[in-house]
Design brief:
Layout lengths: L2 H17 L19 E5 L5 H5 L2 H10 L4 E7 L3 H4 L6 E7 L7 H10 L4 E7 L5 H9 L1 E6 L5 H6 L9 H9 L17 H15 L5 E5 L10 H14 L4 E5 L14 E2 L4 H9 L3 E5 L2 H8 L4 E5 L4 H4 L7 E4 L5 H12 L1
Parallel strand pairs: 1-2, 1-4, 2-3, 4-5, 6-7, 6-9, 7-8, 9-10, 10-11
Helix pairs in contact: 1-6, 9-11, 11-12
Length: 342
């Protein structure tokens, strides 16, 4: 473990201990349903694509509960304006730099930006995020949700553990607007023009009119399945679905677990990737930002899980499904894909 890594581990432990009780009283302040909610701040100071996409259901829920409201974001990195490009509700995006030691001025500027506006409601998305709790405490607001999930929520919603769902359930409970309505899906809000461009890109890649199965063979760390796992799956897809194309979306690292044998698509633009995937019949890939991007592009998504918890991160809604590959073999995976394609 490097010295820098040790420092970051210590910093996270220290800030977590210092902020673990922050806001425990304020979070229970009763909500007055007659209070107009016109400006909301969502705090999710994280730069990862998946974590940003996982807050799109909360933004949609705010649009439903408080029509005409403006939603500001306190996040990290530069993906915010890209992910939320077509959300008219989004106002200001306060983004911490990914490397705050090297961009300390910008880092502090984003924190000071929290005090420039008065909010009606501030929502911390990730309960265990020290930065999220601190930012929620700093921001001026009539109401604050620090992120704790109470027994009223856990007993009512068996799927409350999901990272996209529990902020929505918390919001509904806090505002007294509990409902059986499904949680909104992840949604990149692709425009018609973007979808048309994705269709053109896919057509140029496959050069035929057959429907397409999209795979993503990469993931970070131990979430990544080895070539020994992907090779037989890829071959089975080819033999099982001769009337379909099989294309591979490549990661930023430009690597392939099947040796680039499938027609492959590479782009650093997440909206371009999403638009191409939206024109396919099904997506199959491990738990990753691209898996969440596929779900947010509204293509039926099969998420593969071997080390992370599907109940917290699986694609949901429609024909989306999370598959525990420790319990499901290739035959089982093919049956799941068959059910989607039927």
């Amino acid at each position: 473990m490097s010295f820098k890594h040790k420092v970051n581990v210590f910093r996270r432990l220290l800030t977590h201990n210092l902020t673990s009780k922050l806001g425990s009283g304020h979070a229970n302040k009763p909500f007055n349903p007659n209070t107009p909610v016109k400006r909301v701040l969502i705090s999710r100071p994280n730069h990862r694509l998946g974590n940003l996409l996982l807050i799109t259901p909360l933004v949609q829920e705010l649009e439903i509960l408080f029509p005409g409201c403006t939603v500001d974001l306190f996040i990290k990195g530069g993906l915010g304006p890209i992910v939320f490009k077509n959300y008219s509700t989004i106002g200001k995006i306060l983004a911490l730099p990914k490397k705050h030691f090297k961009q300390f001025g910008k880092y502090m500027g984003s924190w000071f930006g929290l005090k420039k506006h008065r909010y009606d409601l501030v929502i911390n998305v990730a309960t265990n995020s020290s930065s999220g709790r601190i930012s929620t405490g700093i921001a001026g607001s009539t109401y604050k949700i620090f992120g704790e999930v109470g027994t009223e929520v856990t007993s009512k919603y068996p799927d409350y553990q999901h990272m996209a769902k529990y902020p929505v359930y918390n919001l509904r409970h806090f505002t007294g607007q509990d409902t059986a309505r499904p949680v909104p899906p992840l949604n990149l809000m692709l425009s018609d023009a973007e979808l048309a461009a994705g269709k053109t890109a896919l057509a140029a890649l496959v050069n035929n009119s057959k429907p397409t199965i999209c795979i993503f063979t990469f993931a970070t760390g131990n979430k990544c399945y080895p070539p020994e796992w992907w090779e037989p799956v890829y071959q089975r897809l080819l033999t099982q679905y001769p009337d379909y194309n099989v294309v591979e979306v490549l990661p930023a690292e430009n690597v392939s677990q099947i040796g680039f044998r499938a027609p492959s698509y590479y782009s650093k633009d997440v909206r371009e990737i999403g638009a191409l995937m939206a024109n396919t019949a099904v997506f199959v890939g491990a738990d990753s930002g691209i898996m969440h991007l596929a779900a947010a592009s509204l293509v039926p998504t099969v998420g593969l899980f071997s080390v992370t918890d599907p109940s917290r991160f699986e694609p949901y809604g429609g024909k989306n499904i999370g598959v525990n590959t420790n319990e499901t073999d290739t035959d089982g995976l093919i049956k799941i894909i068959n059910n989607i394609l039927q």
